[in-house]
Design goal:
single chain, mainly alpha, 4 helices, 0% strand
């Protein structure tokens, strides 16, 4: 997995706690570790939705990021879609 290096990522880091890493390696405890991480992520998501700091967080891009050739403004993409829709209708 790749993470875009931003000041937020530099400050927070991307390392997993050694205890959690150990729990994820063991066959019997990985389910507990995953459940704990999912629960914690849900609680943090709920908290971050009400906070105004959402822009500082980092976002994960899925496997489809490999198909990205360039970065465009959202307005240009919307205009291109609107032009294609106008031609088709």
């Amino acid at each position: 997995m790749s993470v875009i290096r931003t000041p937020f990522v530099d400050r927070v880091g991307t390392r997993v706690h050694p205890l959690v890493r150990r729990l994820l390696q063991a066959r019997r405890t990985k389910y507990i570790a995953r459940a704990w991480l999912a629960l914690r992520a849900g609680m943090r998501l709920k908290k971050s939705l009400t906070a105004a700091r959402g822009r500082e967080d980092y976002w994960q891009a899925g496997k489809s990021v490999a198909g990205i050739n360039r970065v465009e403004p959202a307005a240009a993409i919307v205009q291109r879609f609107m032009a294609a829709w106008a031609v088709s209708s």
